[in-house]
Amino acid sequence: MLTPIRLASALVLSSSFALAAPVAQDSGIPEDTVVVTTASGLKYSVLKAGDGTEFPRLGDRVRVHYTGWLEDGTEFDSSRRRGEPSEFGLGQVIEGWNEGLALMSPGARFKFTIPSDLAYGSKGSPPKIPAGATLVFDVELIAITMRVPDFVPIDPERATVTDSGLAVQTLVEPTGAACTPKSEIWFEYTLWDEAGKFQDSSATSGNPAVTVVDKFTLPFLKEAASFMREGGVYLLAVPPALAFGDEPRGALPANSTTIWRLELKRIFQKPEFSMPPAEELVTTASGLQYQVLREGEGTPPVMNQGVICHYAGWLTDGTQFDASYDRNEPLTFRLGQVIEGWNEALMLMRPGAMYKLVIPGKLGYKARGKGSIPPNATLVFVVELITVK
Fold first, then answer.
1. What element of type H or E holds 313?
2. Is the dihedral of CA 188, 192, 197, 201 positive or negative?
């Protein structure tokens, strides 16, 4: 249904990157405090209470540290030993984790004892986890990094029903342009069944849904693109024939009416080359120059953090040497994998921002050059920071 975003670009210097500083290692399976057993058979004990302010729900993304053992004390996995937390969406991991994490608030540290039917069952996860294994985890919930929207039932009095049977309610009025079949768009979606049970969300994967309109395969998305405008948020009640039809989809049975929340975040347009006047550029101590074309919101990325960007790059005479816009495919990478000028600039940008960069050769490809880029060339980029991962 959605176009995946893959790692591919001449800008990436290396696939290796430095990991976060290691954290203290566990000495072994921690002792239980008070053991609570849930109706499913999950056992947990609170090693450290969280802040109690919020709890993750199915679909939310979380960041955790953890160590996992077999019952005999054999360690089979540890984010702590790797020195980097794990991030994922609830619903993407074993059932014992989905249930257990929903009991935790940020800052909490729980011990889970998970029976095999809530873990890897009779198949196990070779070679480290045998069939039928009970698993023990020490899990720390560091943060809830992204939340799925709350379910809102469609209001028949505010909804419009199209000739196809699609019911549409505008939640947030749009502020920008309309799509065309050839538009490359960034949209966010959340899917529920008719009763409001969560099924799927672009927020859960952590990747923005980026595609060209005429590549949509679900009929209702093609129809929705004809009326969606940039900045708009829409609630849709979709009859089965316009979505998954008589095919079951995950937990959705065949012939399900589905409820979708769609937000059209951006219609991407490839920028034209221009050299900004010197007085419109900010120059940093390193020699990087930049012009803010659009401000973003949120927190800028830091070194080693993952980002997704669209960009176009030129020599100072206007010769284009690369553009992700031409491929309709944003670039996914970690800071530290790209040229120094990009690393510095991106740490100034907030998600949604668009900057024009003028990067001297010493912060670009230096004396070696690269492909059609001459040695010591000054480079001009327009970079759009879509999201920070």
1. strand 306-315
2. negative
Instruction: Give 160-268's CATH code, choosing from 3.40.30.10, 3.10.50.40, 3.40.50.720, 3.30.565.10.
Output: 3.10.50.40
Q: Classify residue 32 by burial, with Cβ atoms within 10 Å: 0-12, 13-18, 19+.
A: middle
Question: What is d(CA 91, CA 76) in angstroms, rounded to the nearest whole number?
Answer: 22
Are the CB atoms for 111 and 55 separated by under 8 Å?
no
Helices of type H across the chain: 79-82, 95-101, 202-205, 219-225, 324-327, 340-346
CB distance 184 to 210 below 8 Å: yes
Q: Which pLDDT score is estimated for 12?
A: 40
- Give domain 36-146's CATH number out of 3.10.50.40, 3.40.50.1820, 3.40.640.10, 3.40.50.200: 3.10.50.40
Q: Write out pLDDT tens, residues 243-254.
A: 999 999 989 999
DSSP output for 146-180? E-PPPP----TTT-EE-TTS-EEEEEE---SPBP-
Spans of all domains in the chain = 36-146, 160-268, 278-388
**Comparing C-alpha atoms, which of 152, 149, 172 is closest to residue 237?**
152
| DSSP conformation class of 20 | P
Residue 12: how many CB atoms within 10 A of its CB? 15
- The reply to whether 278-388 shares the fold of 160-268 is yes
Q: Which CATH architecture has domain 278-388?
A: Roll (3.10)
pTM of the model: 0.81
Burial of 138 (0-12, 13-18, 19+ CB in 10 A): buried
Question: Do 48 and 109 contact (CB within 8 A), yes or no?
Answer: yes
List the one residue out of 98, 81, 102 whose CA is nearest residue 20. Answer: 81
Lowest mean pLDDT among 16-25, 71-80, 237-246, 250-259: 16-25
Contact at 8 Å (CB) between 55 and 90? Answer: no
Q: Which of 201, 223, 209 is nearest to 3 (CA)?
A: 209
Token digits for 298? 């949120």
Residues annotated as catalytic (active site), given as ranges: 66, 76-77, 94, 120, 137
